[in-house]
Amino acid sequence: ECSPVLLCALRAPDAFPALAAALQGWTQGRDSLCTGHSLPQALMALTPEVTFRQAFLFFTEEDLVSGKALLMSVVSEHTKLTQICFSPLEAGSWRCRAESLFSYLQAGAQVVCTVLLLKPGLWSRGLPAILRLLHLEKFSVVGMKHLDLDVTSASTLLPWEVQQDPAAAEAHCAYLTSGTALVLCLQRPNAVKKLMDLLGPEDPQLAQALDPCLWRAQYGTSTVQNGFYGSRSYPMAVRDVKLFFPEGLCCAQCQTVQEQEV
């Protein structure tokens, strides 16, 4: 006899690896409690193409964006599952701002902006090669300026774990304020993650061990003098664009950036 199943359409940044990690943790916890098959099993689509085909097979537009009470499962950046339930009134108001999930899947990745900062001493000798690498990775440069960072601006660029270590934070700020830096605003689909993937870990030695082609492996010499700063998330990219380019960019800003600012 067949048992009913629960179908969920989920949407989140890096949805596939995030959901896979969450399900792996859930499965391990489940298996430690029971060795039988009485507890639920979970399956997920592995590619965007399969996701679209299965979503179209099992859901309609009304199922995904409706005026009824809406239940969503959200994967946070720490891969913890959270559920949010909107009342009918809240769901109706939210629907006015939601786009069709099918249209979103068909449209593909949105063009967004991110910020790349070339730390003092690097850009004056490595700029032509770096600009060529950006071109090969299909980034468009929509903002560029060189500037001398003050301590306040430099401290906002430090990773959270560095900010918790006064000695490390002082060393990073001293280097960032030791000379002129070059700041680029870059644009392409999935720009934030793509740039992070190219830069690699903050530690150049770890980057070298992972892949010698990573940019910090090629241009970094230490965790302080690691060549680059890049916006680590989309909200941070929006913050960095507003911080370094308050006068605007050389082209119209992405709609998604404007929405995030609102």
From TrEMBL:
The keyword Transferase belongs to this UniProt entry's keyword annotation: yes
Keywords for the protein's UniProt record, in alphabetical order: Kinase, Transferase
Keyword Transferase annotated: yes
Domain Nucleoside diphosphate kinase-like: 111-251
SUPFAM superfamilies for the chain: Nucleoside diphosphate kinase, NDK (SSF54919)
PROSITE patterns in UniProt: NDPK_LIKE
MF GO annotations: kinase activity
Alphabetized InterPro entries for the sequence: NDK-like_dom, NDK-like_dom_sf, TXND_domain-containing
A Pfam family recorded for this sequence: NDK
Family named by the database record: Belongs to the NDK family.
Protein's UniProt name: NDK5 kinase
Naturally occurring in which organism (per UniProt): Erithacus rubecula
